[in-house]
Amino acid sequence: MDFWKRGGDAPRKNPSDASAAASILDIPLLWISPHDVWRVRDACEGTQVFGATGSGKTSGSGQSIAKAFLASGFGGIVLTAKPDERAQWEKYAREAGRGDSLIIVSPTEPWRFNFLDYELRRPGLGAGDTENLVRLFFTVLEIGEGKSGQTSDPFWDRAAKQMLRNAIDLLTAAKGRLVLAEIYDLITSAPTSVDETMSEAWQRNSLCFECIAEGDARVKGTEKEHDFRLASKYWLREFPTLAEKTRSVIVTTFTSMADCFLRGKLREMFCTSTNFVPEHTHLGHIVILDLPVKEYGEVGRFAQVLFKHVWQGATERRVVETGTRPVFLWADESQYFITSTDKDFQMTARSARACTVYLTQNLPNYLASLGGDRAAADSLLGNFQTKIFHANGDATTNQWAAESIARSWQQRRSGGTSGAAGEKSSHNSSYSDSLEFEVLPGEFTRLRKGGPENQQQVEAIIHQGGRIFSNGKTHYHLIFRQRSQ
Fold first, then answer.
1. Among 6, 14, 15, 356, which one is least packed by beta carbons within 10 Å?
2. Whole-number pLDDT of residue 7
C-alpha cells in the first residue's frame, strides 16, 4: 500500500494528533516472521547488508527491501556500480507502478544538475552564503578524491579558499549565477600586476574586469555591496601584488582541483544547467544515477559521490512533519561510495526519515576504501542498526558478524568413563556455563545462496541493535525467495 501520493505530488497530510507520526513510522515494510515486523522506523535507522559474490544479497534481501520502499511510495537515490542496475531498478519500478517516478541521470538523458548554482539558489536560510559555497566545493572534491582534510601546509588551502570566495562574490554580483567554467575564467583572467589593472587590453579581454564593471552598477545600494567592494579590492589590489610564485601556487591549487569538472561528462552534467534537484526525491521521485563505476570508472564514482553529498545535506535540512515522506539512499557495491561524512549523516538520518541501505561483500572492502582506518569503518557500521548477513567466506566479516550479534551464557556438559579393565565402568558428567557466540562464525559459510539448486531460496541472518525477536534472540534466521528472472 502507498501511504503517500506518488510521482511528484506533495505528501499527504495525516491528522496532526500525537500518535499520527508514530503510526507512520510503524508502517510494516517486511515481515521477518509471523510475529516480527520490519517497519519504516527500522529502515530509518540504517541497513547494512553483507554477502559474498553470488550469495543472493541483491536478489534476496536487497530486492525485498527495494520493492518494499517502492510499494510504499518512498522517494530516493540509487547509486550504481554495475551496468545492469538501471534496468534492474526500472523493472522494480514498473512492477510497483512507479515507472513515472524515475529520473534517470546519464549522459544520454536530459537531466542536468549544476551543484554550485543549486547551492546558490536552494531553499533555506543558508542558500547563497559564500562560505557555504566555498565549503561545498572543497568538501565535494576532498571526499571525491578520498581526502579527509587539508594539504600538508594549511596556508595554501586558506589562500585558495580566499581566492574562490572573492571569485564567487564578484561573479554572483555581476552575473547572478554560478558556473564553474566562469569561475575558472575569472581567476585565470585576473591581473598579475598593479600596472595591468590600468591596461585597456587587459580590461577589454578580462572576465575579471568585466565582472567588476558590471557588478558595480548592479549591487549599488544593496546588501551585497559590501562584499562586492571587498572582492573588487582583492582582485585589483591584493591579488596582483602577491609574489609571482605564491600567486601561481594558489591558482594551481584551485585549478587542479576544478580540472575534472571542467571537461567531459562531469562538466556537462553537473556544471552547466539545472533541471532536477535533490528535493525531487522528497516528493516521491527516484533518482537513478546511471553512471556505473564499472563503466565510467572514477568519473562515475566522483559524480555519484557529489550528488550523494548534496542530497544528504538537502535531506537533513528538510522540515519533517507528520506526513513527511520517507526517502532512501541505496548503494549496491557500497564500498565505492562511502566517505568519511557518511557517519555524520547516519547520526541524524532517522530524524530526517532517511533510509540508507548499503550492500557490499565484506568488511575488508570498507577498510580498503577508508584507507585501512578500522575506527572509521566501525564508526560508520555502528550507525546501521539493521545488519543482514548472507553467505560469506570472509573470516574477518564472519568474525565481526558473530561479535556484533553478541555472546550469551550457554550451558556445556562434560563427562567421561572410568574403571579398570574387567571391572564395571562408571560414568560421570558435569555442567558449566560459558560465554559463547550465539551464531558461530562458521554458520555464515553454510547459508544457502539461492538458485535452482536451493529452490530459489536465499538464507540470511538479521540482527538489530537493541531488539529481541520473537525467538527470544537478538537475531533471526530468514529465507528470501528469489523471483524468477
1. 15
2. 36
